[in-house]
């Protein structure tokens, strides 16, 4: 079946599977791929978006409308927003011991996901690197203890521990460059052929190989979105009041401070500070929360 439909033909629903600036690859219900632009000068279309499209020529189309989103994962600063993916049900935060990962970035990803009620899973990749992996496991055990699944894999050897977590989900891979996201994606989707690159030992960093987001179907009910590596994750769109709630282990203590407008920084009678002093919550997590509040 050819994707072309005569001008004036009926609209159809499609799924955005790739974003290239203001051009979008849209998959129709019949499995056809159309290269589309957005009507007018509007942008803001993301991988995972469901859209109404109208074919305008062979393999070409126009996005007429965005459908309502279930979730929207994005980062922001005071000046702009960067959409990562739409309608995802879980985020796979990929970290590795080499190069060094940012624990602050992990916390920021978790907050963004919690603010949208998106499930979070931590994947510790490169477990074939035994000694550095042991150190990373000790650090990440904190997140496992508070309820986030921590999956240990080696993308070049065995990814089977991750596969059950992907069933019946639209997942998005997120993390810094060099964590092995593309290698992981290639192992999950052998035909993906995402570019990979060596890490820089001198700079303790990875090379930026993924330049655009792309959705891949795993089966009829499961899909995964690979996104470019991120080095910063702004949370300007999450209010100070909501940030505390996004630390899931803080929730039993919120509302129990001496002062109703407590910011949990250094106020007397702060339930979170008392909980940290008593070992009920992590000093480290409280420190990351307070650092966010002070910026």
UniProtKB/TrEMBL annotation:
It is an enzyme of class 3 (hydrolase). Residues 86-231 form the EngC GTPase domain. Zn(2+) binds at residues 257, 262, 264, 270. GO terms for cellular component: cytoplasm. The keyword Nucleotide-binding applies. Signal peptide: none annotated. Residues 80-233 form the CP-type G domain. Gene3D superfamilies: Nucleic acid-binding proteins (2.40.50.140), P-loop containing nucleotide triphosphate hydrolases (3.40.50.300), Probable gtpase engc, domain 3 (1.10.40.50). Its main location: cytoplasm. It is found in: Cytoplasm. Its cofactor is Zn(2+). NCBIfam families: ribosome small subunit-dependent GTPase A (TIGR00157). Monomer. Associates with 30S ribosomal subunit, binds 16S rRNA. One of several proteins that assist in the late maturation steps of the functional core of the 30S ribosomal subunit. Helps release RbfA from mature subunits. May play a role in the assembly of ribosomal proteins into the subunit. Circularly permuted GTPase that catalyzes slow GTP hydrolysis, GTPase activity is stimulated by the 30S ribosomal subunit. HAMAP family: GTPase_RsgA. This is Small ribosomal subunit biogenesis GTPase RsgA. It comes from Nitrosomonas marina. The lineage of its organism: Bacteria, Pseudomonadati, Pseudomonadota, Betaproteobacteria, Nitrosomonadales. The gene is rsgA.
């Amino acid at each position: 079946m050819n994707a072309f439909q005569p001008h004036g033909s009926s609209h159809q629903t499609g799924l955005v599977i790739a974003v290239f600036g203001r051009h979008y690859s849209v998959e129709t219900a019949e499995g056809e791929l159309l290269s589309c632009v957005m009507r007018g000068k509007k942008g803001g279309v993301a991988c995972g978006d469901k859209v109404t499209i109208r074919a305008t020529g062979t393999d070409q189309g126009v996005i007429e409308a965005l459908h309502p989103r279930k979730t929207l994962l994005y980062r922001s600063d005071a000046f702009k927003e960067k959409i990562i993916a739409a309608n995802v049900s879980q985020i796979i935060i990929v970290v590795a011991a080499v190069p060094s990962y940012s624990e602050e970035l992990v916390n920021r990803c978790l907050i963004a996901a919690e603010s949208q009620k998106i499930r979070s899973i931590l994947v510790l990749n490169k477990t074939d690197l035994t000694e550095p992996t042991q150190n990373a496991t000790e650090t990440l055990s904190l997140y496992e203890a508070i309820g986030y699944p921590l999956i240990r894999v080696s993308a070049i050897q065995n990814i089977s521990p991750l596969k059950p977590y992907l069933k019946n989900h639209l997942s998005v891979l997120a993390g810094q460059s060099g964590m092995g996201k593309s290698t992981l994606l290639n192992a999950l989707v052998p035909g993906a052929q995402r570019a990979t690159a060596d890490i820089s030992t001198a700079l303790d960093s990875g090379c930026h190989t993924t330049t655009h987001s792309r959705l891949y179907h795993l089966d009829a009910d499961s899909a995964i979105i690979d996104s470019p590596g991120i080095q910063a994750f702004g949370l300007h769109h999450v209010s100070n009041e909501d940030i505390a709630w996004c630390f899931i282990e803080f929730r039993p203590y919120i509302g129990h401070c001496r002062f109703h407008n407590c910011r949990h920084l250094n106020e007397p009678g702060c339930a979170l500070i008392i909980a940290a002093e008593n070992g009920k919550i992590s000093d480290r997590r409280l420190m990351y929360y307070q650092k966010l509040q002070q910026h």
